[in-house]
Amino acid sequence: MGLFESDRIKYIKNGEGIKGEYIVYWMQECQRTKYNFSLKTAIKLSRENGLPIYVLFNYLSGYPEASKRHYDFMLQGLKDVKDELEIKGIKFIFLEGDILKNISKICQKAGFVIWDKGYLKYQIDIRKKLLNLIDATVIEVENNVVIPVEKVSLKEEYSAKTLRDKYNKIKRDSEERFFYEEYTETEYKNIEIESLDCSDRYIPRVKKELDGEFLGGEKEAFKRLDHFIKNNLRFYSDKGPDNEVSSKLSPYLHFGQISPLEILYEIERVKKFSKEKNEFLEEVIIRRELAINFVYYNKNYDSWKGITYDWAYKTLAKHLSDTRTYLYSEQELEEFDTHDIYWNACQRQLVSTGYMESYMRMYWCKKILEWSENPEIAYKIAIKLNNKYLYDGRDPNSYAGVAWCFGKHDRAWREREIFGKIRYMNSEGLKRKYNMEKYLEKYSK
Ligand SMILES: Cc1cc2nc3c(=O)[nH]c(=O)nc-3n(C[C@H](O)[C@H](O)[C@H](O)COP(=O)(O)OP(=O)(O)OC[C@H]3O[C@@H](n4cnc5c(N)ncnc54)[C@H](O)[C@@H]3O)c2cc1C
Q: Which atom of ligand 1 lies nearest, measured to the CA of 284?
């Protein structure tokens, strides 16, 4: 796949002649140094304008829905970023506190400001506000997709098929490869960073607390990809809760610690397992970028009224008064206190490890729909628990994944109680497909 650089890198504000003293790259969605088009743009501009680069990261305690688990993972990754940038001779500044205040202050003397594009409301909103506070030239870079979202489609896509058809029409250039120009440290200008109240802070060193938890960082992300390709890709078609052969790259993709483009290139280098490769690429490119298309074009992606189709709302409404044999409160669900041993096990996995295998995520959310007073309450509980516990939560995939359980990107099925025509799942299906005893052994206590 080509790099689509001209579609990725957008000048969204013209600094009108401001040369500035340095270039700022405000890193947020793309917490890595490899395959980072924002960094690449900064280096190019540095060479063209003879200005040094400062890469900033602003640490905000109280980021929407973020928990200690998310912060730890992120900080582990930022340590890698700092080390790798130092090797390139680029200064990394770790700030704490108010994003708008900190970034706009540092950008006062900047000639160019570069940032990663985000797709969620909060990310879009903060960039709009920042844009008004900065005089420099601002460049927004779409770093975490294989093909930039507007290059593929200018509207919300109906399903994986409609998106896939559009991807298939886009011309590939498989020869093009990512590279950085060399960064030659321009004469260091003293920009008095220390005198700003957002001075360069020490990045706390965070260890993994529990076994099974994820360790953040681009080095670890690449190790996982490499391990997956060497050991598990061949079994990918049979992935399931009893074997855990999937890549477990979702936390790294969420924090931008690995690029989907790098994943694609590494997978393409594998000469065998074409069926498994296609299935994996369908998930990591089509399904993942369908989720991005969903949150980008659907302004109600996170509220009950906007997440699914008319037919789905209608069929769920028709079954609102159906008897619910089991009804659980949010607390009972959160504390894995239901009659269903499989569901309790996957909720326990969610809480204790911050990860859940893909098939179990579907089962988990379908049962929340079945056991809640109504679909809207179910939706809210599912999103809340998903984002609270999963390392990869708070992602476009979170919103699309949960919405899928309510009919989004899916089709109508045989009508039944509570679900209406929404796809149904039950534990018989789990037992038929997988060795669930093996799963229970791991997560039932
Ligand atoms: C109810 C529900 C909630 C979900 N919540 C999240 C979430 O919060 N964050 C998240 O990243 N994914 C979510 N997913 C999608 C998917 O289940 C996970 O991305 C996947 O299980 C992560 O494990 P993995 O990295 O081992 O996946 P692999 O099978 O190895 O796939 C590789 C990558 O492809 C992407 N991918 C895989 N399956 C999907 C999918 N169905 N939709 C979109 N992208 C996909 C992910 O980026 C994943 O890391 C959810 C799915 C459902 C049904």
A: 34
Atom number, ligand 1, closest to the C-alpha of residue 247: 30
CATH of 5-143, one of 3.40.50.620, 3.40.50.1580, 3.40.1190.20, 1.10.10.410: 3.40.50.620
Secondary structure class of 384 (helix, strand, coil): helix
Model pTM greater than 0.85? yes
Could you tell me the CA-to-CA distances from 163 to 39, 70, 71, 142 in Å, in that order?
29, 31, 33, 18
Looking at the DSSP assignment, which residues form a beta bridge with residue 85? none
Question: How many angstroms is it from 358 CA to the middle of ligand 1?
Answer: 6
Residue 56, strand partner residues: 26, 93
Helix (H, G, I), strand (E, B) or coil at 106: helix
pLDDT in tens, the chain (445 residues): 468 999 999 999 999 888 899 999 999 999 999 999 999 999 999 999 999 999 999 988 888 888 889 999 999 999 999 999 989 999 888 888 899 999 999 999 999 999 999 999 999 999 999 999 999 999 999 999 999 999 999 999 999 999 999 999 998 776 778 888 888 876 555 455 444 444 445 666 666 666 667 899 999 999 999 999 999 999 999 999 999 899 999 999 999 999 999 999 999 999 999 999 999 999 999 999 999 999 999 999 999 999 999 999 999 999 999 999 999 999 999 999 999 999 999 999 999 999 999 999 999 999 999 999 999 999 999 999 999 999 999 999 999 999 999 999 999 999 999 999 999 999 999 999 999 999 999 998 8
Tell me which residues have their CB closer than 6 angstroms to ligand 1. 246-250, 253-254, 283-284, 287-288, 291, 358, 361-362, 365, 386, 390, 392-393, 395, 397-398, 401-402, 404-405
Nearest CA to ligand 1 atom 38: 283
Helix axes of 396-404 and 375-389: crossing angle, nearest 10 degrees: 150
Q: Which atom of ligand 1 is nearest to the CA of 248?
A: 26
Round to whole Å and give the CA distance between 131 and 136: 9
Superfamily for the 304-443 domain = DNA Cyclobutane Dipyrimidine Photolyase, subunit A, domain 3 (1.10.579.10)
Does 218-297 carry CATH code 1.25.40.80? yes
Distance 134 CA to ligand 1 centre (A): 36
Kindly calculate the radius of gyration of the chain based on its CA atoms and give it in whole angstroms. Answer: 23
Q: Taking the C-alpha atoms of 289, 294, 296 and 300 in order, what is their torsion angle to the nearest 10 degrees?
A: -160
- Could you tell me where in the chain the CATH 1.25.40.80 domains are found? 218-297
CA 285 to centroid of ligand 1, rounded, Å? 11
